[in-house]
Amino acid sequence: MEQKIAIVTGGSSGLGYAIAKKFTANNIYTFIIGRDKANLDNACKEFGANCEAIVFDLTNLKGIPELVNNIVSKKGRIDILVNNAGINMKKNLVEVTDEDFQRILFTNVNSVFSLSREVAKVMIAQKSGSVVNISSMASQYGIPQVIAYSASKSAIEGMTRAMAVDLSPLGIRVNCIAPGFIFTRMSSAALDNDPARKQKVLSRTPMGKLGMPEDIANAAYYLSSDEASYLTGTVVPVDGGNSIGF
Fold first, then answer.
1. Is 141 a catalytic residue?
2. Domains and CATH numbers, the chain
3. Signal sequence: where (predicted)?
C-alpha cells in the first residue's frame, strides 16, 4: 500500500505531539507544523524518518496556499489533516477586549478554515481524504472565563458538520474530537494548584480520572483510518464520560 501522508498542526507538543507520534509509529508520513523550530526538530528526532517539521505561523493566511503546495510537491498527496493547533485565554468575560476575542477566533477558527480549504482542494482532486478537527469540552457545556475559546471551539464543531456535508460526497470524511480533561504538564499543574477545580472535574467524570494524550491520539488515528470509512460529520467526546456526568 502507498504510504499515507498526514499534516498535524501543533504537532510538537501536547495532544498534537501524541497524535503525530501515533501516526509516525504506524508508518504514516507526518508533517508537523508549528512556530517553535527547536520543539519541532526535537519532536521529529524522536519520531524518526516518518516525520518532517515545518516552521509556520498559521495566522499567516496568505501563506497557507504555498504551504500546502510545497507539501504536495514533496509527497504528491495529502491523505490526512488534523487541525489541532489553537490558543486559549482565561479571563473574566467583562475584561475580554474585542482584540482579545478576535485574536482567539483568528487563530482557532480562521486558520483552521483556510488550511482546511486548501487541503480540501488537494483531497477533492484525489477523491479521498480525512480531516480531523479538535474541539473541546468548552463547546459541550459552559466553562467559566473562557468565552472566546468556547466560541472558537463551538465554531469548529459547526464547521465540522458543514465541511462534512460539502466534502463527503466527494470522498472526503470530516470528523471532530472533543477532548475532556487530559493529563498534560500544563493541565496537571493548573489542577494541582486548584484542588477544588480538580475535585469538580473528577467528581463529574464517571471514569474518575483524567484522560491521557494517547487517548486522543488513538481516536484521531481511528477516525482518519479506513476502519472509520462510514463515519463523517461526527463530534466524538473523548472525556471519560465528563460531558454526560452529573
1. no
2. 5-183+213-238 (3.40.50.720)
3. none
Contact 54, 33 (CB under 8 A): yes
146 close to 90: Cβ distance less than 8 angstroms: yes
Which of 43, 61, 69 lies closest to 105, judged by CA?
61
- pTM score over 0.85: yes
What are phi and psi for residue 173, nearest 5 degrees? -90, 145
Judge contact between 27 and 18, C-beta under 8 A.
Answer: no
Please state, in angstroms and rounded to a whole number, the distance separating the CA atoms of residues 159 and 112.
9
Query: Which one of 17, 29, 149, 221 is the catalytic residue?
Result: 149
pLDDT tens-digit readout, 172-220: 999 999 999 999 877 777 788 889 889 999 999 999 999 999 999 999 9
67, 56 contact by CB (below 8 A):
yes
Return the number of other C-beta atoms located less than 10 Å from residue 199's C-beta. 11
Residue 25, all three cell numbers: 509509529
Cell of 131: 480531516
Please state, in angstroms and rounded to a whole number, the distance separating the CA atoms of residues 157 and 233: 9
